[in-house]
Each structure stands twice: as C-alpha cells, then as structure tokens.
Amino acid sequence: MEHKFTRLLVTSALPYANGPIHLGHLAGAYLPADIFVRYQRLHKRDVLFISGSDEHGVPITITAEKEKITPQAVVDRFHEMNKEAFRKFGISFDIYSRTSNPIHHETAKEFFLDLLEKKFLIDKEEEQFYDEQAGMFLPDRYVEGVCPNCGSEHARGDQCDSCGAYYNQLQLKKPVSLVSGKTPVVRTTKHWYLRLGAFQQRLEAYIETKSSDWKENVLQQTRSWLKEGLQDRAVTRDLTWGVPVPIPGVEGKVLYVWFEAVLGYISATKEWAAAQHTPERWKEYWQDDATRYVAFIGKDNIVFHTIVFPAILMGKGGYVLPDNVPANEFLNLEGGKFSKSRHHAIDVKDILEQFPADMVRYALATNLPETKDSDFYWKDFQAKVNNELADILGNFINRTLAFAGKNFGSALPARGALNQRDAELIAYIAGAPDRVGTLIERFKFRDAVAEMMNLARAANKYFNDSEPWKTIKRDPDACATTINICLQTVRSLAILFAPVIPFASETMWSMLNLSVPLHTEGWASSGELRIPDGHMLGTPSILFAKIEDGTIAAELEKLGGVVETAAVQEPEKKTMMPIKPVITYDDFAKIDLRVGKITACVPVPKSKKLLRLTIELGEEQRQVVAGIAEQRTPEAIIGASVIIVANLAPATLMGVESQGMILATHGSGKEFALLTVTNDVPSGSAIK
Fold first, then answer.
1. Do 307 and 222 meet the contact criterion of CB atoms below 8 Å apart?
2. What number of CA atoms fall less than 13 Å from residue 198's CA on the CB side?
C-alpha cells in the first residue's frame, strides 16, 4: 500500500514523567511506531520520529510534595530514566524532548494567544474549591470526598475510581483538601475554554475522510464524541507548575496539560531542527501538505489526537492533520492490569537487565493489542524466544554459517543448476518484501512478524529437505547451490527482521561479513540474492540463548507468585449457579440473539450500578441499560461487539428505557464477563 508523500512525520504519545515506562506503554505507542519508522527508513524515505516527556500536571506536584523535592527534580529523574530505557530498547527517536523546555513553553503560549485572538478561546467565571489555610484553589486531584454517584469514600475531585463516574468537584460530598486536610470553601475563579463545538462540522468532515483507513476502535470512539456534541473545554487551571497563562496580570494559572502537552510534538520538532542548524526546517514537517503525519498512541489517548489536537491545529491554521492514528488497545499482565501499587508490573528498565531487548521486542510484536486487549505471559515470552527466535531463526542461521565454514572455507559457494525446490524458495524470498511491507503499511504488525518468521520456517525446511550433509559427498554442485541460497536467505532475513529485532539483525549482518551497512541496502533488496560468489563470511555465533524454566519462575515470583496459583485454584472455589428448569426448543427459538457493537456508553444519573449503552444493531441504533457500572467503566467497553437479546420487551430502569439485554456470565458475588465476539463479525448478525 503506497502513499504519495514527500516526507513522513511520526509521533509517539508523550509518556508522563511521573514514573518509569512499562511493557504496556511499549506495546501501545512505542514499539509499533518504531517498527513502522525503521521499515520506512529502509525504504529510504524522509522520516522524522518525535516524542518526549510530558512534564506538567498535578500528579507531578503531588509526587514532589510527598518527596519534599521540586517538581523539576521529579521530571528530571523520570525523563532521564525513561529516555535511557527507550534507548536500550532500541526505540529510534530522532529526538526525545521534554515539555519543560523553554521552546515548548514558547510554542504553547503562541498557540494560546493565537486562538485567543481568533476568539476560539473564551473566558468563564466558575466556582471551585479553595483551601483558605493553604491559600490556593484546589485542582481536582488535590481534593477528595465521597462520590456523589456511588458513595465511595476517597473519590477524586473529578472521577470516582470505584464506579468510574465523572462529575464536577463541587458535587463531591464531604470534600477534604489534600494540602491542609481541611474542608475547602467555594470561591469564584476565571478560566479560559476552547470552543470545541466551533470545530464540530470540520472535524466530522475530516473524520469521514478517514473512514476507510482508520482502525474501527479509533473511528468508534471518535464518532461517539462527535455524536454527543462537542462542548467547551477548559484550557487553564489554577496551579503554579506548568506553562504560565501568557496574559498580563494573571497569576497562579497555567495551561491545562491536555492542551499544551500535544503541542510538545511541534516544539520537539523545532528543537530537532535547531540542532540540525536548520531552524526553519520544522515547518516542512508540520506546515507542508506533502507531509504524511501518523500519530501512534494507546486507546486512552484517542480523542485527544483525533478531535482535540486536530481542533487546535485547525484553529491555528496552516498545519497538517494526522493522516492516521493507529491506536492500540491495552496490554495486560498475566491476566490482570498493570498496577505498580500491587507490584503487578514489569518496568522496561528492569526487564532489560535480565533479557536482551530483541527478545522482548519480538515477543511483544507477536502479541500487540492491535484490535483488542492482549496479555503478556512470562511462559508465553519463554516459548516465543525458545521455540521461534532460538529454534527457528537462530537455528537456521547458525547451521547455515557453520556448514559453510566447515565445508566451503567460510566462502559463499557458487550456485549451479536450480531444481524445483531451489526455485520455490528463491520465489518465496522475492515475494517477501511486498508480503511483509504491505502488512506493516496497514499497521498489522503481528501479521507482518508472523510472515517474517514464516520465511525462516521455509528456509529451515528447505535446508532439511535439501540434505546438504549428504549432497556434499554425492553432488557437491547441488550442495553448493543449497548453501548459497541459504546464505542469501540469511541476508534477506536480516533486512526483513531489522524493524523488529534491530540488534540481532546487525549481528546477522556482521556474521555475513557484509561491507555495506544494513540500513543502506534498501527494503526491496531483501527479495534479491545479492551476496557475490566467493564472498568471505564472518564468524557464526549463537543468536539467541534459550531461557530456562528457573528464570521464568523467578520472574513470576517477583509478581508475588499469585497469578498462576489463582488461575489453578479459582475454579475450585466457585459454585455453579443452579440450572434453571428445562425449556422446549420452541421456547428457545423465540429468543432473537444478535451481535451488537457498543458505540457509546454513559452512567445513568443517580445510579451506581447502571450504564446507558448505545448499541449499533445493523442499520439500527438501540439504547440498552445494563447493570455493570460497578465492574466496567464506559471507556473500557466502547467498541466491544456484544451479544444482545434483540426481541426483549422494552423496560424502564431509573427512568431510562432499555430496548434489549446484553449477555454476560454470572459468577459468585459481583463477578461477571461480557460475552463478546470479534469485531470482524458485522453488527446485526444473528446468533444461532
């Protein structure tokens, strides 16, 4: 799939500098982007890869206060830590910047003032909690209280972690300031708002131009926001850490991090251009229609990159908009969410102390959450390394070079006449660049990696079927042809795998003793047999060492050793619900079960259990009320394809009509699981 563009701009979401990055972050926005960028560079395309630390916001100030250090000290620590982790993992940013840099502050202020002048920003007076003892207005995370929706204690100022409800901080019951521990008072303050609604029609038109290219999860979440109607959104808050509001006489207010952080992509590009001694070159990537812009993010950042950031760019004018936003879903760990507080996480810096980066890159690449959440399991990681990297790829390379060294003096033997087996592998190699490249261009990285490994599988089979250990004696010319083609395949594999396992690919290249650097050869050349006859090879070595069971057991122990135990023992603890009385087939045939896609989801007011779902049922839209709010947040289920009882008589719950029922398992207590189908099953499909 070719795109007509002069240059390619790629960004990865700016990670928050309040903690170390973990594997879930890599699988969401960084490894897919790096694979894509490395592939594009092998095509000799003009590519710029941008990211950096998001360094403002309340969580950083809270950390600073707890540790009795400055916010700058917090971000300095985690910026350097994460920058180094990315480097060791092989993420090939052209620049990894930070939003605390002066150039970013200048850029954010410029955008604010321009939008203000064009009246896309308006000021509003509003009431907010104020801590009289501390002498400050309280941002949402500086106040806690009782959730107005479910009654949970210690709910945050803007969202309840127990029920997932969003609300204004003034709705909190029994509010307490986290600064002084006192009950805050209500005072009036002024903030500036972005008039998102002013961009509604332009954004709708923009999104529809992407309807055939963007992932379904991205389109669904974006359209859901647009369907609800875009509302004004505050771009300032009362805080001292951040980009100061650039208006004379305004003290103690900064630009809201959601507004200024995305501008870090632009300020980082400016910083990169200045470092190249071409300070105006950043405009080529951001203000030239010949640029294709691809923004890699996780699903929690979708609307900020498909609605909010494009609206800001539209308001400023003259900037390119994202051509694609290939957001991934979430990567979980051993069946549960990543959680630092429960010690259920794997930080990048820690895993790289135990395993080579390429092992982790490969295992993650085969399991990226491209269309739905996926899980990282330590035993699956071991199997990927041992059974695929070591036994398939590494074994083929080692046996080929070792055989050539022993029987041909480490020189590439000349090919003779080709038999059918030879011709088939050569043809398979010739088609590999297009097969793999097409998948990468479509952001189907898992399939692309599988196709890479399929060539290694085919090469192993070719080696075995050709039996060079026999033909070396009875038909030396045939043996020479076999080893020549196998060595040419090693070269092809080195190029094809370079976007995924770059360090190992360079090792493969050095084993072949090729004088031309790998990155200068070009992607298409991986389909060609380019090593000349008589070329002297390098020294073979073990590409991937196998991982022992004890090593994996130790890693599981670091997670508390609870995951596997729970998986084995849990079924014994559960009691199956009694089976209901027998019904006839005719009774069951009356039930019309259909596949429905959840396109929107909001809490039902004054209920802690109910969510109001908008479900696409073929050409029809249904409203369904489901009692799952205590177990699922709206964001977690938007885009899911569920099974719905389509012909159930409407019922009214808490004043809201429900036009059907979604199916779920029912365990003991509050445990349940939604019954879902893959997103490739069309909505409205009948279940039989």
1. yes
2. 15
Closest CA to 234 of 191, 270, 198: 191
What pLDDT was estimated at residue 669? 45
Q: Where is pLDDT greater, at 601 or 312? A: 312
Tokens coding 541: 């070595």
Q: Do domains 377-527 and 585-687 have the same CATH topology?
A: no
Nearest in space to 687 (alpha carbons), one of 652, 641, 653: 641
In this structure, the strands spanning 593-603 and 656-658 are: unpaired
CA-closest candidate to residue 291, choices 266, 271, 316, 326: 266
**593-603 and 686-687 as β-strands: parallel, antiparallel, unpaired?**
antiparallel
The more confidently predicted of residues 494 and 581 is: 494
Cβ atoms < 10 Å from Cβ of 62: 18
> Distance of alpha carbon 325 from its chain centroid, rounded?
10
| Range with lowest mean pLDDT among 165-174, 228-237, 465-474, 548-557 | 165-174
Task: For 188, list phi and psi in degrees, rounded to 5.
Answer: -95, 135
First vs last C-alpha separation in the chain: 38
Contacts of 182 (CB under 8 A, 6+ apart): 131, 132, 133, 176
* CATH tag, 7-119+254-330: 3.40.50.620
**Residue 432 pLDDT exceeds 70:** yes
Whether 399 and 486 have beta carbons less than 8 Å apart is answered as no
Type of residue numbered 195: R
Instruction: For tokens 């190699």, name the residue.
Output: 429
Give the pair of three-digit tokens for residue 312.
Answer: 């800001």
The predicted model gives 604-617 an average pLDDT of: 82
3-state secondary structure of 558: helix
What's the confidence (pLDDT) of residue 580? 59
How confident is the model at residue 297, as a pLDDT?
Answer: 97
Please identify, in words, the CATH class of the domain defined by 377-527: mainly alpha
Q: Are 547 and 553 in contact (CB under 8 A)?
A: no
Burial 594-609, CB ≥16 within 10 A → b, else e: bbbbbbbbebbeebbb
When pLDDT is averaged across residues 511-519 and rounded to a whole number, the result is: 95
Instruction: Determine the Cα–Cα distance for residues 216 and 222; give it in Å rounded to an integer.
Output: 10
Residue located via tokens 């647009």 = 226
The closest of 196, 226, 228 to 211, measured between CA atoms, is 226
Give the pLDDT mean for 415-431: 97
Minimal CA–CA distance to 377: which of 352, 346, 343?
A: 346
Going by pLDDT thresholds of 50, 70 and 90, the confidence category of residue 535 is very high
One-letter amino acid at 257 equals V
Q: Is the dihedral of CA 465, 468, 469, 470 positive or negative?
A: positive
Task: Judge contact between 147 and 171, C-beta under 8 A.
Answer: no
In tens, the pLDDT along 453-462 reads 999 999 999 9
Per residue in 31-63, pLDDT (tens digit) is 999 999 999 999 999 999 999 999 998 889 989
Reply yes or no on whether the pLDDT at 272 is more than 50. Answer: yes
At the fourth CATH level, the homologous superfamily of domain 585-687 is Nucleic acid-binding proteins (2.40.50.140)
- 604 SS3 class: coil
334 close to 568: Cβ distance less than 8 angstroms: no
Contact criterion met (CB below 8 Å) for 61 and 71: yes
Cα 220 off chain centre by: 17
**Residues with Cβ within 8 Å of residue 603, at least 6 apart in sequence:** 149, 163, 164, 165, 166, 610, 611, 612, 629, 634
DSSP 521: T
What CA–CA distance (Å, rounded) separates 581 from 388?
50
* Residues forming a β-bridge with 616: 597, 621
Residue-range domain boundaries for the chain: 7-119+254-330, 377-527, 585-687
**Predicted pLDDT at 1:** 41
CA distance 224 to 335: 29
pLDDT given for residue 596 in this prediction: 87
User: Residue range 317-329: average pLDDT?
Assistant: 97
